[in-house]
């Protein structure tokens, strides 16, 4: 059973349909990248799944529970980090986390142990007694992430967690999120920094005009960039007869010449690939590399968005 299930989700703002019959699911342990243009419906969807907005139609289930019927229980399973979050600048870091720990009725030595563990996780141990106001933006965002983890939620919903961070802070945030995945957390993350999402996420959903236009694991999504598999074949030395071999296979198209090899579109199965490589070797080719050329998440994103708009 998926940890998160969304089916037919719809939300209006006046006459504008912000979310349009949206459906997708996230399995336990996944890092799901939720991407789309500005105004596509990402933040609205995230707020609905966290119980902060009421949907006009459809259903959201977390751990099998319908949020419309089990809101308080569902909220206890979620840690939500909004794109614009508030921190209490006149509190020290430990006081800030103590405040939220008390909100979850976590007190005493248990709260202090948890706070120390969270500060170590987000790499803020040395800032424990500093005022929040003295922290950099990146540090404040990591503190906000620690706050999301106070009640040990199953699901983290992070809306632009790296927004405004410098490159070093983004790298630190990415490493923290990887650690959280290793700890068994399921993460939904929205971001416009697509190269970093492609390194971090296991799965991606692309939303446009309130509708899911593409979803799947990273390999499936990046394949959208080319529309079919792109294969690189390299030889020990130049082998021009390869072009003759390629013409004998209907699965091969769009051949591009590279140094001592070729990149080609391939619309066949594993057996077709075996026969292609065998055919090259039988003609005297000394094949030294065969591999899949992955498209980028940016290319896949643009292709998916343009397909809808056209």
From TrEMBL:
GO terms for molecular function: ATP binding; ATP hydrolysis activity. Signal peptide: none annotated. PROSITE patterns: ABC_TRANSPORTER_2. Keywords: ATP-binding, Nucleotide-binding, Transport. Coiled coil: none annotated. CDD domains: ABC_DR_subfamily_A. Residues 4-234 form the ABC transporter domain. Belongs to the ABC transporter superfamily. This is ABC transporter related protein. It comes from Caldicellulosiruptor hydrothermalis (strain DSM 18901 / VKM B-2411 / 108).
